[in-house]
Amino acid sequence: MTGERIVFEGGRVVDPANRTDEVRDVVVADGVIAGPEAMEGAERIDARGLVIAPGLVDLHTHLREPGFEHKETVETGTRAAATGGFTAVASMANTDPVTDHAAIGHVVRDLAAAAGLADVFPVGAITKGRAGESLAEMGEMVDAGVRVFSDDGDTVSNARLLRNALMYAKAFPVEIVLADHAEDASLVEGGHMHEGSNSYAMGVAGRPAAAEEIAVARDLAVARATGGRLHLCHLSSARAVELVRAAKAEGLRVTAEVTPHHLTFTDDDVATYDTNLKMNPPLRTAEDREALREAVADGTIDVIATDHAPHAIEEKESEFDLSLPGTIGLETALGVVLTELVHPGRVSLMRALETMTVAPARILGAADHGGPIEVGRPANLVGFDPDEGWVVETPFVSRARNSAFLGRRLTGRVRFTMLRGTLTVADAKATR
Ligand SMILES: [Zn+2]
């Protein structure tokens, strides 16, 4: 479809990379943003009432392929991503085989290219097999274009290994980011929800906030000692946020993310034993949620990332203790952020979009994504109606349906998504 010309007329163009917010036309020709001279003969799309922004970038997606295709595939996951306004996602390494060498990354990227729905940036494992014992083939993966490494699902428990990885990563000529799932393994073992009055009342073993606090403090200490580049996945607790705020003030090279579900729910919501609200790290208290929202607003947290975690029905519809943790999130992320943060006035639209476009694109080294929306740049765009109400319900575009947001009313819906000049979503439906 390259060669096609499209002009989006009269949309509100919000471009966090340039910090501009203005009503104007956006012209696309040959897969890139074009000037007004390309308008002649272009297909016209009425974008009045829509916000047009750089295509969203998800720094934390579980696509499950290879190995767990009964949960999701690269194709179904990227179709869900496009439907949610994403043009790029980082796929986590806890596949089978584990993405701990370059070949698996190539497979995933080839599958994504064949589907043509979103660019996929494989995250490499930090340790071989994610076993936490020895470093993975990081150099080989960096040569293959990998920029972010993570053993997500598990923390890197061995501090010496984390130190070695941070030191090793510094030696590359490009910026390599180590992303840690920060929960102290010994404290969360056997736990299924936030440890507190709700877990006591429910008789469910807990995962205390101290587990995150300890792991984040240790990670920051190792980052300080090495000067290494650290990213903290899905923060959930007020004290962890406080540690990151202090580390940034000190000048450590650290970034952090939070999920839409941690910005929305508390452990009071888990009291229904709804397994779709079972997460690692767990949903915590109203005070924690407040601290996370504040941290998005003031920049302590850099990125909102979905932690899209698809599971098969039977893996979720079981007893609370036995069900697997996680929620899908690609299709609902933007609507949730608009509903929970932007419309109530907690976070500006510019700031919210910054956390979902330019900030994750920079961490990921995804130069074609995250804007700016300028002549000559790849036409990776999302258009959404910020005021359209809808209810989250099945079926999902994702192969899975374990959404924490099922039944919730959201305000704000993606109308179109464009990947390099091709509409992957039009009229709120995937085109392929
Ligand atoms: Zn994780």
Summary of the model, kept short:
The chain is of the alpha/beta class. It has 13 helices and 19 strands.
Secondary structure tally, helices: 13
**3D shape:** globular
Largest sheet: 9 strands, mixed
Fraction of helical residues: 25-40%
The number of strands is 19
Beta-strand percentage range = 15-25%
The residue ranges in which pLDDT falls below 50 over 5 or more consecutive positions are: none
| CA-CA gap between termini | 13 Å
Helix/strand-derived class?
alpha/beta
What small molecules does the structure contain?
zinc ion
- Kindly report the oligomeric state of this protein: single chain
Average of the residue pLDDT scores: 97
Describe this structure in words.
- This protein is of the alpha/beta class and 432 residues long.
- The chain is built from 13 helices and 19 strands.
- It has helices at 74-83, 102-115, 138-143, 159-170, 185-188, 197-202, 209-226, 238-250, 286-298, 313-316, 333-342, 349-356, 358-364, and strands at residues 5-15, 20-29, 32-34, 43-46, 51-54, 56-61, 86-91, 119-122, 148-150, 177-180, 193-194, 206-207, 230-232, 254-258, 303-304, 381-391, 409-419, 422-426, 429-430.
- The strands form four sheets. Strands 1, 2, 3, 4, 5, 16, 17, 18 and 19 form a nine-stranded mixed β-sheet that branches. The protein has a five-stranded parallel β-sheet with strand order 9-10-13-14-15, with helices on both faces. It has a three-stranded parallel β-sheet with strand order 6-7-8, with helices on both faces.
- Strand 11, helix 6 (197-202) and strand 12 (206-207) form a beta-alpha-beta unit.
- Bound molecules: zinc ion.
- Zinc ion binds at residues 152-153, 181, 233-234.
